[in-house]
Fold each of these.
Amino acid sequence: MTASDPRALAAAFTEAYRRAPEGVWRAPGRVNVIGEHTDYNDGFVLPFALPQGVSVAAARRDDGVLEVRSLQAADTVVTVPVDPHAPEARRWRDTAPQRERWAAYPAGTAWVLREHVTSAPIGGASLLIDADLLQGAGLSSSAALECATALALCELYGAADLLAPAGRRELARLAQRAEHEYVGMPCGIMDQSASLLCTAGHALMLDCRSGLSTQVPLPLEDSGLRLLVVDTRMHHELVDGDYGRRRAECERAAELLGVAALRDVKDLPAALKALNDPVLRRRVQHVVTENHRVEAAVGLLRAGATAELGAMLTASHLSLRDQFEISWPGADVAVEEAQRAGARGGRMVGGGFGGSAIVLTPADRVDRVSEAIRAAYERRGWEEPRFLTAVAADGARRLL
Ligand code: GAF
């Protein structure tokens, strides 16, 4: 069964809970074309939604409990009060065993909605989850899980204002808040926005300060190009501190430079001169130039110069490797080998230290490029990488 088969998920729900679900909702994972570690610096990002994602079958319950099950963790049933102040809710969050930690995303989402949605009181629900995203590949399965849960709960409990196009920005902020307050990951707003706001065939140019966004056509197929996702099979938990350290370094640099966020640095040479710490100088260099690259990439896409995006992706990768220092060997090798085999360019995507890289390649070189990467991994004795041709799909929605 695939997650895009809502009827099969509804049938599995009926079997698990001995009642039919009231609906099935789905939220996608994402690939970010460019604009990495710019979101929490109030900058620009350019993600698009994948066809792969997370589906949630759900039904209300009147005992104030959220019960979460997943087809990918058949032996786990998590039950927590929706009220985050209930002692049982706090106990679960503080003591849940590792194999149940994934349930903090739907639980945290329910808790935040319960706390902050004033238009409708969010109550209990039974959820059955199914995901068809590559696990641990850095394609934002956690944001997809939060967003699918958020859509389901808002619709079940009548929070219609958050479901309207104008409300989805706020919903993204609430999902992000769940990740900050309950999961402990100080993420930016990109992943939740991508999952909730993207449209098929487009990337989302998001100004993370104003929240304003525009849909930018991403005509990969028409340009004879493919965006290949390379799951490097090297994984890293972002909750463990490296991501938070980078964020703190950026905030420290902004403070020393006397700006609200690194987005406000207008004179890069002067800013670099003003900072004594070489680490902070490298972080600033990345964020400022990456914001410029996002704007330039949007210009290229609008001008129909899609192939030229490749050089921009590679420049982003080198900056993430050398200035932000969050790349990893699997991504570096994938980008180098892809270019040698005729790709236009490529880069690591997401938070860093593991996950996936993307490679922009002419359609007729996809096999050659993937084979070159596979062979390079084999020579090094690394686990075989997985490949996915990325397609820009629609954002979160109700399926049934
Ligand atoms: C992770 C975070 F969740 C995003 O907010 C973003 O900062 C990204 O890393 C890096 O661009 O996916």
Amino acid sequence: FKKSLLACAISMAAAAAAHAGNPLFKDKFTADPAALSDNGRVYLYVGRDEAEENGKDYLMKEWLVYSSCDMKNWKAHGSPLNVQTFAWAKKDAWAADITKRDGKYYFYSTVAHATIPGKAIGVAVSDSPAGPFKDARGSAIITNDMTRETDIGWDDIDPAVFIDDDGQAYLYWGNQVMKYVKLKRNMIEADGPIHTVAVPHFTEATYLHKHKGTYYLSWSREFPEETAYSTGPSATGPWTYRGVIMKKNAVVKTIHHAIIEHNGKSYIFYHNDKLPTGGEFRRSAAVEELHYNPDGTIRFIPQTDE
Ligand code: FUB
């Protein structure tokens, strides 16, 4: 513990990207935060929004990694992975999620597939949370099969990975329809059929976490989006809807979030439009502390500039 405090102090002194309140990074547009608490540091993974000021669509080619031990001073680790990490992908470094298993870091991310219509999900692996990452299987783990009536080009997006206490890993994802599949122990293959989950007004950005024995399934609902959640007794439900924890942004219609615990506190990362010239395709990652009520429900979380 002492060692990690010392490492924290040294890295803060060398921090390349200092933070003075939300949004977290003032020099770049950063969207779709994914986060991991590991060895005393929080690692934050964001897609880089590169659209022009009046751009009409996302322009996202790479993910950026930052880390912090105090949630205030952030060190930039550059871009250890991008669309080209996946040889079978052609564009769109959209939302991602990360987990650690057996000393390796598995990064699940949305990209547009080069030969199969629509978006797909890839998995990259690294020995370090800051990368470099390489494609873990050489092909997408999830592709758009267009077999359901509800299938659209972008329904296979926004992966969320969760490893339960019994070691079973799950991958959640989806747009309009929430889906999940069990993962094999190797983390790079699906194990069994794809299931769907019915939650109210689901749009996208599923997230799953566990706190004090309760499972929390959260997602972006409606459009413009707000963050809602359900709780349940297992990683697959049954789910009880609990309400909205974060309200819509002023301009940008998406709000993609991630929830982690770090050094005994809980945090929610999300994105907003608060950087000057920010907006729909020029978003900024932000963070708030998240508090649980004694009955396990989550307190409503106001967006702040702190
Ligand atoms: O960044 C592209 C898409 O916008 C993400 O995949 C969604 O969650 C939304 O934030």
